[in-house]
Specification:
By secondary structure, the protein is mostly helical. It contains 4 helices and 2 strands; from the N terminus they run αααββα. It has a two-stranded antiparallel ribbon. The longest helix is centred in the N-terminal third of the chain and has 26 residues. The structure holds zinc ion (ZN).
């Protein structure tokens, strides 16, 4: 598209206006990008800890980040001989960052525990 009106004249300021519109659009995008990165930050995520699924994931990611992957099942009555996968399980409903509020369970024990099918007798571990 040419920067001319119907009579073939150049339209003054057209380019500038277009440039400005592009500029403000760019600023909008920057704003969105910044708020997204803020949401991904630890502080905002922590406010979402409400015992819902998102909160569970946030807590799980936090514990893995700080204490590494779960590598054993602390349920002394774990029926699995050699479970292959282990997960952190929260033993409180509160948003907490204490190591003692989490236990390591194999997948099977974790599912049963979350469903309320089993109580967990914890194996003592050095923390
Ligand atoms: Zn287990």
């Amino acid at each position: 598209m040419r920067d001319r009106d119907l009579k073939g004249r150049f339209i003054k300021g057209h380019k500038k206006a277009g440039g400005f519109a592009k500029g403000s659009k760019h600023r909008e995008e920057s704003k969105i990008r910044i708020s997204e990165s803020l949401e991904g930050s630890f502080g905002i995520k922590s406010r979402r800890w409400r015992g819902n699924n998102a909160g569970y994931v946030a807590k799980h990611l936090w514990i893995v980040k700080h204490y590494g992957k779960a590598n054993k099942c602390q349920n002394v009555e774990c029926g699995f001989d050699k479970p292959k996968r282990f997960e952190w399980a929260s033993i409180t409903d509160k948003p907490t960052r204490k190591r003692n509020d989490y236990i390591m369970l194999c997948c099977s024990c974790h599912r049963k525990y979350d469903m309320g099918l089993i109580g967990i007798t914890l194996e003592e571990v050095s923390l």
